[in-house]
Amino acid sequence: MTNKKKLVTEMGRIDADAFRAAGKLPLVVVLDNVRSLHNVGSVFRTGDAFRVERIMLCGITATPPSAEIHKTALGAEDVVGWQYYESTMDAVDALRSEGYRVYSIEQCRGSIPLQSFPTEPGERYAVVLGNEVKGVQQAVVDASEGAIEIPQFGTKHSLNVSVTAGMVIWEFAKKLGMVE
User: Fold this and answer.
1) Which residues of the chain have pLDDT under 70?
2) How is the chain split into domains, by residue range?
3) Which CATH number fits domain 20-175: 3.10.20.30, 3.20.20.70, 3.40.1280.10, 3.40.190.10?
4) Please, are residues 178 and 25 in contact by the beta-carbon 8 Å criterion?
5) Best CA proximity match to 100, nearest among 84, 128, 123, 129
6) Does residue 112 contact residue 13 with C-beta atoms inside 8 Å?
7) Cα gap 4→135, rounded to integer Å
8) Do residues 55 and 81 touch, judged by C-beta distance below 8 A?
9) What is the pLDDT of residue 14?
10) Are strands 112-113 and 101-105 parallel, antiparallel or unpaired?
């Protein structure tokens, strides 16, 4: 058997209008003061791949339109819904008032390993990913229902925020039934 690469026309991708109308993964991604526009673009692209409900861009996190975001998002910023909040706490408060269960992706005492995080059918979730150096603000961690941690076994104490987003979104897509 040959592993010949698929043509774009063979992949069955939907267009922008179909994306906007399609059902979404009940997950919102919150970026807490993410400084790299390439990381923001990458999160948009991953959000597109798994049809997250929306992305909340907070604090110093840049917003579209931006050539640097577009460089990695490749147009995903035009289809994935997004909102800007000056304060991440305001975004968290808004999500909680909408009935979302908000978790910080952070290394904390008592955090839940990502692979062990239990999801519940019918629930809507939001995950907060933090700044590339400082992580999620402690006040935001405190306002979250809990913290989810990706176990790591090397010498570095953290992963790139866009890599983390990809792992977390993929795990939620599996647990919430988008991926079988």
Assistant:
1) 1
2) 20-175
3) 3.40.1280.10
4) yes
5) 123
6) no
7) 41
8) yes
9) 92
10) unpaired
